[in-house]
Design a protein that fits this description.
CATH architecture of one domain: 3-Layer(aba) Sandwich
Radius of gyration: 33 Å
Distance between the termini: 61 Å
Mean pLDDT: 77
Structural class: alpha/beta
Number of strands: 31
Strand order of the largest sheet: 21-22-24-25-3-26-27-28-29-30-31
Strand content: 5-15%
Largest sheet: 11 strands, mixed
CATH class of one domain: Alpha Beta
Length: 1159
């Protein structure tokens, strides 16, 4: 296996052609003057063109012809070479010593003569005609260095790993596939074994440097399951590693904890990432390690309003379909789209949902120290990358940026790097992924050799090394970036270069009226003739010859090329291209606010910033308006399929603001209204206080830009959990600090923050079915859930998901805080969002009297606090049903704990009072929060809901026990078999450590040693024969049982009892059934690799969605779900299917914990 860090070896022909190009083009190809951007100077904040003398464009055509000549010459010569020379490689000369001798450099004279004798006869004549050799006898002198360079390249050994090669590493670990973790390189043949491997004949010397890119956990696991010798002899490739059954099991386990999915652009540019971590148009991802109150992996309880008609007389705003007469385009089409206008018969496509992964390739070339140097192309890339990052949440690690001011050779915009990056951009693209391509640099034209251009010329772009390597033709870019894409993949491309109108060879080009353009060849030929006459009158004989050639080509080409392109280049992929000029125009450099920039790149960003919600045709006109009167270039819009250029999305009037949907999902038929403000900014004086109602702002239509999430942080112990838990599940039970490389876990600084992070984050998303707007009474929630909700003719649901404050921003508490603020701000945020649903869900067609909330882990714990809010003394809660999944929270009852957390936070912020903290910059508090949460004790997130005497008058378990809660709700609840292991320290190895952990979980017990003794000797005794709670057999299992019941599973028992045993309760036991393992089943989307039992996934979804619709989980097609009842019966979701068992939480331990005797 070739090491993945190595650059992929080019094909032999391409290597030979490159060597030939270096010799030929360097001598003969002048710079393409006519293709350069024209420099423009002007005053600050003004675009002012400068008229420059007309230049001759002949050089550009010459460069194109030379490139074609090199291609032709390479094909002729290469085909005549000996077969063993054409297939020459490093492996070949290692396997056959005679080849190494035969082609040893310098080449033997007789061998060279033999090669020359077999060349096609016209070769020497062609070289002499182009002035490359003076006489046919010089052929050997010309060809010898080319052949020797080709041989040296193809027979060079694979390079050893160097940091410069890290750019070629794969996006994720090569064993588990996770892309959100740092990667390390693993020597497949350990260095300690190199000498032995060669001596014993296991491997050849040149094979020793193979590496694989692995996450730290997989790297450590691999070295634990095999010795160095076993790695060298048996596991010397990733393919061999993945053949082992134990590795496969290991790899499948962490695959359940992938990084959250992301939103993608709905049309011309990328769309905003939704504020809630995990997205709203897509299902929330499984929380890593169950989440917590300090980080962003928690599941907010998302209310679901049903799709029935709103109650009569409800007047809180409404849906607004703006009439077309007022200039507002209609909403997107509702059905599959059929290709037309000459496209292949029977083809259909759908606009991309843009809910998948985002990737961007940005290229800017200034051509430093070359003729025709440009000034603004690198600035274009910087501006575009910042725009994508700040406005649409594109992560820097998901961008490849190639500019010629970078020191790293891999980041230079050479031909090889550009082509490699294009392949990277489209690699593994899936439906609904969204890709973004931006090129700013020289563009030009070259003679069309395959007859696919109306004007007889292909469009090209010029890499920084075009003199040596040649240009890149539109045919090749189309083949790489368009033909390879699946239906439903979005590629948005911007070409800010000359002659770029059809740079991707997309067959559908649209006018500023949104009308499909068709070539008027007679008109174009007439314009060409007029140009000939004008050039002759000026005495410009060069232009006469050049234009005359184009005139005759256009006049004779006819419509057949256009029609053939419709048939062969129409694509079901959703590719949109914005180009800076027509094919026969140049693009220009500009100077905007003192910065050199490309006019097209500047206009594109400026137009979208002024109005981010435009239809395709509106944006095309907006871009042209930005340039009108300043430049002659005409930006173009083209597409890979017929395009509805008037697509726009519906608007809802909320009374205090107007909000427009950010995307339309044609597959599901629903709209996503992203980032709707439900509260005033919790900044400045509003910090650490209850949320306030938002101000009225009806002056503009809100579109959800920019994307927002609340500040969040992760505790450092998660890094240890990631490594040790798989090993524990594999049988290891003893760990110590030397088992983990803790020194490298910090990464040398604070973690990089998501660019969407902002303190002003109190927003929510609403996903609404199109059918509701048509009064059909059907809705969609998270797509994978609502598909199930409608699978048997059900009503369906509307899906709402909210941001709320986290960490110190949302959970500070204690007497000091409450004297000048509000405790549990995160819970108060949730309550205001739920009240927003009651007030406004009817505007989306939902019923405020049929709202179900569901949430997992901390989200489920939040639901318990909402159910018991104010001890039930303030009337019904703002929802009617609840589905808490693995509801969890640490019992924070001690004022001392709360005060200590506050004191530490203020000290980290270098202030002493809450009022001083309100005056600090957000960034200061963000860092303090990251440091404090990062240093949380093992299993803790430092912050969470706490008893405050107001919203939380006591622990939810106590309140449920004493009847202080809303008793009108319908409840479906569930938990997993091993909730606590993810939060259990591997260093608890004896009874003393276990007792210390009990006190760490409940600090108030430090004053009550008798209670600690009762917990450690009666509830969870040191008896390791499997007879105790959860069948523990060691100290880690014992601690996991304590954490499971105290923090998670007993909470489900409290709810079941409180609601008179009339609840529906499930028990998820599919191995390993850790905290969060049920989430991939809840949001199963048809990818069988994501779940071990498709039957369980479908059953779980049907249970949840039918309960949300009807109050009962039971529907046809799944096993009957019985109520909890007097027998404490729960639905067991196990690897073999679904069955009924007795609730394991109905035990004396949970009864004892509910009394909260430790308070």
């Amino acid at each position: 296996m070739t090491p993945t860090i190595l650059l992929p070896r080019v094909a032999s022909f391409e290597a030979f052609r490159d060597k030939l190009s270096t010799t030929v083009i360097a001598k003969l190809a002048p710079h393409p003057k006519g293709s350069k951007k024209r420099a423009v100077k002007g005053r600050k904040n003004e675009i002012k063109p400068v008229v420059k003398p007309q230049t001759n464009n002949d050089d550009e055509g010459d460069a194109g012809e030379l490139s074609d000549f090199v291609e032709f010459l390479a094909e002729e010569i290469f085909a005549s070479l000996p077969a063993d020379l054409r297939s020459l490689s490093y492996a070949a000369v290692q396997d056959d010593a005679s080849l190494k001798t035969k082609y040893e450099v310098p080449l033997d004279t007789l061998l060279l003569d033999s090669i020359i004798d077999h060349l096609p006869p016209p070769t020497a004549d062609s070289l002499q005609t182009y002035g490359l050799i003076n006489d046919p006898s010089d052929l050997d002198h010309f060809l010898e260095p080319i052949l020797e360079s080709y041989i040296a390249t193809n027979t060079s050994p694979p390079p050893e790993y160097t940091p410069a090669l890290t750019a070629t590493r794969p996006p994720g670990c090569e064993i588990c596939g996770r892309e959100h973790l740092p990667l390390t390189y693993h020597h497949l043949i350990p260095r300690q074994m190199h000498a032995k491997a060669v001596k014993r004949g296991w491997h050849r010397e040149w094979e020793l440097n193979k590496v694989a890119w692995l996450c730290r956990a997989c790297h450590s696991y691999l070295h634990k399951i095999a010795t160095n010798e076993e790695l060298a002899r048996e596991l010397y490739s990733v393919e061999l590693v993945l053949e082992r059954e134990d590795v496969v099991k290991w790899a499948n386990w962490p695959q359940q904890y992938q990084a959250p999915p992301q939103q993608y652009p709905p049309y011309s540019g990328p769309s905003p990432q939704p504020a809630y971590n995990g997205g709203y148009g897509a299902p929330p991802p499984p929380p890593q390690y169950g989440g917590g109150y300090g980080n962003g992996y928690q599941q907010t309880p998302p209310p679901q309003g049903h799709g029935s008609a709103p109650p009569s007389g409800y007047q809180q705003g409404g849906y607004q379909q703006a009439p077309q007469a007022q200039g507002q385009p209609p909403p997107p089409p509702q059905a599959m789209q059929t290709f037309g206008n000459g496209a292949p018969h029977g083809y259909q496509f759908q606009y991309s949902n843009c809910t998948g992964r985002r990737k961007a390739l940005l290229i800017g070339i200034n051509y430093f120290s070359q003729r025709g140097q440009l000034r603004g192309c690198i600035n274009d890339v910087k501006n575009m990358s910042t725009y994508l990052n700040q406005y649409f949440g594109y992560k820097r690690e998901d961008m490849v940026i190639l500019t010629d001011d970078q020191q790293n050779a891999m980041s230079q915009p050479t031909k090889a790097n550009i082509l490699r990056a294009m392949h990277w951009l489209v690699k593994d693209a899936r439906p609904n992924d969204s890709l973004f391509f931006h090129y700013s640099g020289h563009g030009g034209q070259t003679k069309d050799l395959d007859g696919d251009e109306d004007d007889g010329y292909d469009e090209v772009i010029y890499p920084v090394d075009f003199r040596q390597a040649g240009h890149i033709v539109d045919d090749e870019m189309h083949r790489i970036m368009v033909q390879t894409l699946q239906p439903g993949v979005r590629l948005t491309a911007i070409f800010d270069s000359c002659h770029s109108g059809s740079a991707l060879d997309l067959p559908y080009i649209y006018s500023t009226q949104g009308v499909l353009k068709e070539p008027n060849l007679a008109k174009e030929a007439g314009q060409g003739l007029l140009s000939i006459v004008s050039s002759y009158a000026r005495g410009d004989l060069g232009s006469v010859a050049s234009t005359a050639l184009g005139f005759f080509k256009k006049a004779t080409s006819g419509n057949d090329t256009y029609e053939r392109n419709m048939r062969t280049k129409t694509s079901p992929a959703d590719v949109i291209m914005w180009s800076g000029s027509k094919d026969d125009q140049t693009s220009q450099d500009a100077n905007i606010a003192g910065q050199a920039t490309g006019a097209m790149s500047w206009a594109f960003i400026a137009a979208l910033k002024k109005n981010p919600q435009q239809s395709y045709v509106q944006l095309l006109n907006s871009i042209r308006e930005e340039l009108e009167g300043k430049y002659t270039q005409k930006p173009q819009l083209s597409c890979s399929h017929p395009l509805d250029t008037n697509i726009l999305l519906p608007i809802v009037d909320l009374g205090y603001e107007l909000h427009q949907a950010s995307l339309y999902n044609m597959t599901g038929g629903f709209y996503n209204f992203s980032n709707i403000r439900y509260a005033a900014p919790p900044t400045g004086e509003n910090r650490f206080r209850a949320p306030q109602l938002p101000a009225t702002n009806r002056s503009v239509v809100q579109t959800g830009l920019p994307a927002r999430i609340c500040p969040q942080a992760d505790p450092a112990w998660l890094l240890i959990a990631e490594t040790y838990i798989p090993e524990y599940l594999a049988g290891q039970t003893v760990f110590n600090t030397s088992s983990f490389n803790l020194s490298s876990s910090s990464g040398g600084g604070l973690p990089v923050q998501d660019p969407r992070t902002t303190e002003d984050c109190l927003f929510l998303d609403v996903v609404v079915p199109e059918a509701i707007f048509n009064n059909a009474g059907k809705g969609y929630g998270a797509p994978v859930l609502v598909v199930q909700s409608e699978s048997n003719g059900g009503e369906g649901v509307i899906y709402v998901s909210m941001n709320y404050r986290l960490g110190a921003f949302g959970w500070l508490s204690g007497p000091t805080l409450q004297a000048n603020g509000d405790a549990n701000a995160g819970l108060l945020d949730q309550r205001l969002a739920l009240e927003w649903v009651q007030a406004h869900i009817a505007s989306f067609g939902g019923d405020p009297n049929r709202v179900t909330v569901f949430g997992e882990s901390a989200g489920g714990g939040s639901i318990m606090h909402q159910i018991t809010a104010y001890g039930g003394n303030k009337g019904p809660v703002p929802f009617q049903q609840a589905v808490p999944q693995s509801p969890g929270f640490a019992p924070l009852v001690s004022n001392q704990q709360q005060e200590q957390a506050l004191t530490t936070f203020l000290a980290l912020a270098n202030v002493s009072t809450i009022e001083q903290a309100r005056q600090l910059p957000f960034e200061t508090l963000l860092v303090a929060n990251i440091i404090q949460v990062g240093g949380s004790q093992y299993g803790s997130f430092t912050y969470g809901p706490s008893v405050d005497g107001n919203f939380v008058p006591a622990l939810p378990g106590e309140l449920l026990l004493h009847g202080q809660y809303d008793k009108s709700l319908r409840i479906m609840v569930g938990h997993n078999a091993d909730e606590g292991l993810l939060f259990t320290s591997p260093f608890i190895q004896n009874n003393s450590a276990f007792a210390a952990q009990v006190v760490a979980e409940l600090p108030t017990l430090a004053a009550y040693p008798q209670t600690v003794e009762y917990i450690t000797n009666v509830l969870y005794p040191p008896t390791f024969d499997g007879s105790q709670a959860m069948g523990y057999t060691n100290q880690i299992g014992r601690t996991a049982a304590l954490v499971s019941e105290l923090i998670f599973t007993c909470n489900t028992f409290y709810l079941d009892k409180a609601y008179g045993n009339k609840t529906y309760s499930y028990f998820f036991t599919v191995p390993p059934a850790l905290h969060g393992n049920d989430i991939p089943y809840t949001y199963y989307n048809g990818a069988s690799a994501s779940v071990a039992s498709v039957q369980v996934a479908i059953a779980m979804q049907k249970y949840i969605t039918h309960f949300a619709e009807t109050g009962s989980p039971n529907e046809a097609g799944v096993p009957y779900f019985v109520m909890y009842g007097q027998n404490a019966t729960i639905q067991d979701l196990n690897i073999t299917g679904v069955s009924e068992i007795m609730d394991p939480t109905a035990n004396a331990r949970c009864n004892w914990w509910q009394k909260a005797l430790y308070v």
